[in-house]
Here is the input.
Amino acid sequence: MSRIKSSISNNKTSIFRRFIQLTFFVVINYVIIEWIFSINLKSFEVFVKALPVLNSPRNPLSKGAGFVEYIFYSIAKGEFPFFIIALFLLFILFTNRFFCGWICPIGTIQDGLSALGAKNKTFKKETHDSLLKFKYFLIVLLLIIIVPLGVTKTTDIAFHNDYKENLGSWAEQPVGFFSLSEYIFVFFPNLMTEIFENWEETALEPLFSDFWVFFFFLFYLIVITLAIFYPRFYCKYMCPFGAIAARLSRYSFLKLTRSPVRCVGRAECGICERVCPKQIRILDEPYEFFTGNGECNLCGKCIDKCPYNAISIRFG
Ligand code: SF4
Ligand code: SF4
Here is the structure.
């Protein structure tokens, strides 16, 4: 009994976080509630349409499921989304990457995958550092492709139309192909529906109908498999939201702090670093405030597991 009590107290943030994650998982994707209880909650969509923070993936407003999707979608349409960018900045300023650790459904799925029982692995520091840059490369690539599309809408409409035609569905869903949430909640269910509805005539044909359909199926299958062994693989190395949030994280009021008095250091302990799913070298970070170069998602694992209660969250 005392062992159970101590396990609960060692994991109290994690247990509470799981509850919040599962609640948001269902609320954000409330199509799940509709499916389970055979009800129609379409009228609820007006509330989430106003703020694309917690959008249902089927929301036609942003052609996607979040802040970054909405921002890129607007830029591609030749609009600068001041309001959403301001909201995004305020969101990070006050909550840092709390969304990633506690709310994002893709984070929840990855946490579930890494809890399946496979031994969690980490990359060598140099490999990890190089892989971290990949998500920034994706954002720069997106900007290079999408900004000219938006700018030419008002400056050179002939070029704009040609360019848009060449980009095809990419112009409509700029972040879609780089977004695991878009794949899991939109592309994949659509593909499965197509396969099962026409199973007798076409079997698996829709999966091989187009090079990109098969490519993304295989690609995200690999990403999901890697997330079983490498916790938060997609968040760390690929997520477009993660890339932008990581760069803004240092300006947030909400950060972690480590007590120089209580912490006994790596040689005698180092538990916090071993449990961190984001592979942050916590003990190389400054004591006063740290974000792990923007990677910390405030999951609280290090807080729960530190035997000396040396880590805490600070606001200000
Ligand atoms: S788990 Fe706590 S005491 Fe141990 S190294 Fe980390 S912060 Fe220091
Ligand atoms: S530093 Fe702590 S709170 Fe941040 S991601 Fe790592 S374990 Fe979670």
Observations:
- The two ends are 39 Å apart (CA to CA).
